[in-house]
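Two records follow; treat each independently.
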Amino acid sequence: MRKLLLTLAALLPLMAQKRPELNDGEMHGDAPYLLEDGWKPLMTGVDLAGWHGDSQTKNEWLTTTGVMWDRLLGPTRLRPVPGAVPGGSMLNGPTGRTVNLVSDVKHGDVELYLEFMVAKGSNSGVYLQGLYEVQVFDSWAADKPITSSDCGGIYHRWINEKGVGGSAPSVNMSRRPGEWQSFYILFRAPRFDANGRKSENAKFIRVVHNGITVQRDVEVDGPTRAAMNHPEAAQNPLMLQGDHGPVAYKNIYIRPLRPIIER
């Protein structure tokens, strides 16, 4: 008993330590949901509960324990690998072309963290509120000037059959195909007056790609290309693009946006 009491006494200072509050829009080692309080998972780690397809077309998204990429025999494909425990990754079907996946949860001002993997040449997108896209793309070893179509870009709008606006990432932080990558996104939803008219545009306060800030204070004056068909609002769901090539997602977490403290 005395030994147990001594052990508990030694642990008490550790248990009393507060978790950090790192609201500076940067990464600090591990993923922010592991370091700070207030994060809510959007994946069950078992199935697709909490998500639905954006159309009546068959939804082929699936969950898997592992995601396999083969540099030599299948560089343009991702393959699910089952395991003894339920899968914590979502993959957009056997062909990499299926419906877009929409969260049941709606969000306004939000911090979003997620991890993704693409096959060679593949393409997807993370649509905040289903309307404003942060591009997911295989930009590994790109030898052309960076554009809003590269990974980490705020995608352009599509007006009168041409691309308008958009914001290229400040630096290409892409890893090679078949490797997990991360986005940490701080997003402010559009504002509306008492009559329902938009008074302020949506804004990407930060987009952090693989630990490096690639977007800072970028306004979007309307939905980007291939957005969901619903109006801008204070609250809307998250959408993951599923029809442009093999992509996998995991560790998707959100929490309410906090004011940034500049360091």
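The next record belongs to a different protein.
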Amino acid sequence: MNESHQRLGLGSLDGSNSPMQERTPTRRGLWFDEFETGQEFTSPGRTLTETDLVQFAGLSGDYTALHTDEEFARRTPFRKRVAHGMLVQSIATGLGTRTGIFEGTIAALAAMRIEWKSPCFPGDTVRLLLTVAEIDPEPSKRSGKVRFLSKVLNQDDTVLIEGEWRTLILRDRQALRRRQPEETL
């Protein structure tokens, strides 16, 4: 089987692994016990485009002139259109998945706190910085809570959004099974 196909949990290229066969997805994220307070994870950048802004206005129904009317926006303190704050936060959520730390291991993004600090404009390139702030092993044997401090920064390192993400992260079940016999002694 092709190594990249195997890593992605896909079948072989020669068809010997039927697409209808049950597959166990390959974990690429971090298990709960692999997180440590103070760890930092930075996403790749993503440029916010005119298309993003127009499509988000249509999807959300928010056609506020500051976002959609260049002539109006020129008369504001920003001097140009500003991206919707929730658009930028939505992009940040996607960038969180691009760090790779959650893939196959996140059970839930349970809560977010968001504070907008600076505007984001079409053409800005944003990235996400997540810092592990707190680890709570109590929820269950199968998962634990990890609280991240989050920052969305632009290409000039200006902080656009600060906040916090509260997540529920799965534990490595195989590691738990290996430890259980030791705990019963």
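Discussion point: The first helix runs from residue 3 to 7. How would you locate this feature using only the token line?
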